[in-house]
Design a protein that fits this description.
The complex is a heterodimer of chains A (359) and B (219).
Chain A (H helix, E strand, L loop, with lengths): L4 H13 L15 H8 L3 H4 L3 H14 L14 H10 L6 E2 L7 E2 L8 H6 L9 H17 L5 E3 L2 H8 L2 H8 L1 H25 L6 E4 L10 H18 L4 E4 L7 H7 L2 E5 L6 H10 L4 E4 L7 H4 L2 H15 L5 E3 L11 H14 L8
Parallel strand pairs in A: 3-4, 4-5, 5-6, 6-7, 7-8
Antiparallel strand pairs in A: 1-2
Helix pairs in contact in A: 2-4, 4-7, 9-10, 10-11, 13-15, 15-16
Chain B lengths: L1 H16 L2 H13 L4 H21 L5 H22 L10 E6 L7 H12 L3 E4 L6 H11 L3 E5 L5 H14 L5 E5 L5 H7 L3 E3 L2 H18 L1
Parallel strand pairs in B: 1-2, 1-3, 3-4, 4-5
Classes of the chains: A alpha/beta (359), B alpha/beta (219).
Chain lengths: 359, 219
């Protein structure tokens, strides 16, 4: 059966917009390069070899997983952005390629010294091969299945790639230097956005990979200083709703939504469903994309029945009233069984039609 | 006596605040004053590390603070070791082998664990990041560590942890094994076949100490 992407587009974007005209809970999943390779049998370099191959592989994978979402995994302020910086600064030795998973950046190599930060060149994403392919792929998906692609931006994720461990020490011994790096990354992220606008078009939303917003990484004050203030600046320039992703174990969701006007939060922790029930009660206009479905738990070690129970718990507690998107967090790892992933849309079909039957 | 105690209090404070330069100066002064190395280590350095850990648990300290404390501990203990040379006043508590599993280059939590364990008197062999199962095995055979730590941040690292643990066990490596990373849970730890897991660096240090104590009791 051919997938009806227009139904998914309505489901996802109406839920994000808070509309009552939603047929059932949407299913959003992060299928990275690894999952796309697994489903299509192609290597990462084959995927990146042309926008057409990449777009078709992405569409086939997300259709196979029966999701309501679809995204280009390399359009993300992580390894792809590190690659762009590595190329612009002649530091390609920092990059390691793999056959069946995304490239990686050896953290802290690109900005090893203070001088590296001072002299850091901002990449031109319009001239970077991977970014060109990524942007054209996003455009192709927009055109082919009419699914508006969401742009993903970040500051801290890139800081970690470029500066590594030293960034955390800079916070205490040289905060001005660290802020200088954050400024450069902000500039680079805005270049990604400008290229996106030109090639893909206006995104419906911005998805912030806000890794700083976690107690395990830093204090909330530091998260606001080294990432939050830059997100606020992005919001002033990009006039679309922003969503926050944090896949760590102690996220500052409750704190951050008081400071930054996010339309949605996406995470799997805390695992206690009561946290999410309380979050929804206190923030009824904020969409929950999650909530406590952690890919390293039921998804990884359990059975389809375990996954169904977890999805049911989420739907019955968080879907009534809308503004809930079911989403395992974070990226689906290689070892997750396909039946466990497919148990999610099956459980949504069983329990997730509106109006939700709580009993 | 009062002067010696004041010096150790100052050194403890330098460790707690993560001031490596200050720590070097105070360790040198303490050595010159003839304070026994064990006293410098226990009353100032380890005490400072312990207080930093307590503050971390109370959300008054965060990762950047712990890393700075780790730096101060490292320079201080290196200085103490150098001052000893032939005397074995600081006994090694044993050797620990640690690394981030193959395909993962994240080393934040691991680096914190390494510096705090070194400060506690362990010999730590850090294989770095992106370490293959075979490399873990080769080093484990070579140094017979009391414990092996596998670190990983990404969900995809779990499969590599399984592979590494299976290889180590199939080759009859007897060391205790701990896995570390925010992605881990009791369920995934059991599946990997490790003895324990830790979700962050500080928890890792505490659990490693527990595992080693359990092993000593068993022996």
């Amino acid at each position: 059966m051919v997938k009806d992407w227009s139904a998914s587009v309505n489901r996802i974007f109406r839920t994000i917009g808070g509309s009552k005209r939603v047929d059932k809970v949407p299913f959003l999943a992060f299928a990275g390069e690894q999952m796309i390779c697994r489903v299509t049998g192609k290597t990462v370099k084959e995927l990146y070899s042309s926008p057409k191959i990449y777009a078709n592989a992405i569409i086939n994978t997300f259709e196979f997983l029966d999701t309501d979402s679809i995204n280009v995994p390399s359009a993300y302020a992580g390894p792809s952005e590190a690659l762009a910086f590595a190329e612009a600064n002649n530091k390609l030795d920092a990059i390691k390629w793999f056959d069946y998973k995304p490239l990686m950046c050896k953290q802290g190599v690109i900005c090893k010294s203070e001088e590296d930060i001072e002299k850091l060149e901002i990449p031109d994403h319009g001239k970077n091969n991977l970014w060109k392919t990524t942007l054209l792929t996003a455009k192709m998906i927009n055109d082919k299945i009419k699914f508006p692609q969401v742009i993903s931006l970040s500051i801290w994720s890139v800081v970690q790639e470029l500066r590594g461990l030293e960034a955390y020490k800079d916070m205490r011994r040289n905060p001005d230097l660290l802020l200088k790096l954050c400024e450069k990354i902000y500039e680079s992220q805005m270049d990604v956005y400008e290229n996106w606008l030109e090639i893909v078009g206006m995104p419906p939303n911005v998805f912030i990979a806000g890794y700083s917003f976690n107690r395990h990484m830093m204090s909330f004050q530091d998260a606001m200083r080294y990432e939050g203030q830059f997100i606020k600046r992005m919001m002033n320039k990009i006039k679309v709703p922003f969503m926050l992703h944090n896949c760590g174990t102690s996220p500052y969701f409750t704190e951050v939504v008081k400071e930054i006007d996010f339309i949605a939060v996406n995470g799997s922790h805390p695992l206690d469903i009561e946290y999410w029930i309380d979050f929804k009660k206190k923030n009824p206009k904020i969409v929950i994309i999650g909530a406590n479905i952690d890919v390293s738990r039921e998804m990884f070690t359990g059975t389809p029945t375990d996954v169904e129970e977890k999805v049911k718990e989420n739907i019955l507690n968080l879907a009534p009233g809308g503004r809930y998107i079911c989403c395992p967090v974070c990226s689906l790892p290689w070892g997750v069984s396909i039946p466990n992933i497919l148990a999610i849309p099956k459980a949504i079909e069983k329990y997730g039609h509106y109006p939700i039957k709580v009993n | 006596m009062k002067e010696e105690e004041e010096l150790l209090v100052k050194l403890k404070s330098a460790i707690l605040k993560g001031e490596p330069n200050n720590a070097i100066e105070l360790v040198n002064k303490s050595i010159n004053m003839g304070i026994p190395v064990k006293e410098i280590l226990n009353k100032a350095i380890l005490k400072g590390a312990e207080e930093a850990g307590n503050l971390y648990e109370k959300d008054e300290y965060f990762l950047p603070d712990l890393l700075m404390t780790g730096d101060a501990i490292n320079v201080a203990t290196d200085l103490l070791k150098n001052s000893l040379k032939e005397k074995s006043e600081i006994e090694s508590k044993g050797t620990i082998l640690i690394g981030t599993v193959e395909g993962d280059v994240h080393d934040l939590g691991k680096s914190l664990v390494v510096s705090l364990l070194q400060g506690q008197g362990f010999e730590v062999v850090d294989l770095g990041s992106d370490v293959s199962p075979e490399e873990f095995l080769r080093n484990a055979k070579e140094i017979s560590p009391i414990l092996i730590g596998l670190s990983g941040l990404m969900t995809m690292s779990i499969s590599k942890m399984v592979e590494t643990v299976n290889l180590l066990k199939s080759e009859n490596i007897q060391s205790r094994i701990i896995v570390g990373g925010g992605i881990l849970s009791k369920e995934s730890c059991d599946m990997i076949g490790a003895d324990d897991f830790a979700k962050d660096g500080w928890e890792g240090v505490k659990k490693i100490n527990n595992l080693i104590q359990i092993k000593e009791v068993k022996q």
